[in-house]
Amino acid sequence: MTFHADVPQHADMAARLAPIRAHFVGTLPPRLARLAEFLDAAETEEVSPALMRQLQEDAHKIRGVAPTLGFENLGRAAAVADELLDPWHASDGAHPVTDQVIESLAALQVEIEATIAKA
After folding, report:
1. Count of domains in the chain?
2. Among 37, 53, 97, 119, which residue is least crowded by beta carbons within 10 Å?
3. pLDDT tens digits along 29-46
4. Residue 45 per-residue DSSP state
């Protein structure tokens, strides 16, 4: 007779998280597209505040979910971007797009691409 305590819990948890992880990875391509849009626009210095707010929301959501699902590097990159994008969180105005913001979003793009490739 096998008792529930005899079954490795991590295997059960991984099985339960698999569809959630798959769904999460499925949400990444549109976010990746917005990052590409930003990185293209950042070179011309014409970045809309609405896009910046959306990127902040994306980074915030990724930051909250990715580590729980085992995507630690993605979560760390999103956390950095979320902090730097905070001025756009509740603002309709333009804020300076610093090199640090651009670098953090480029790093987030790399982590999203790596996460999609591994999935």
Report:
1. 1
2. 119
3. 999 999 999 998 887 667
4. T
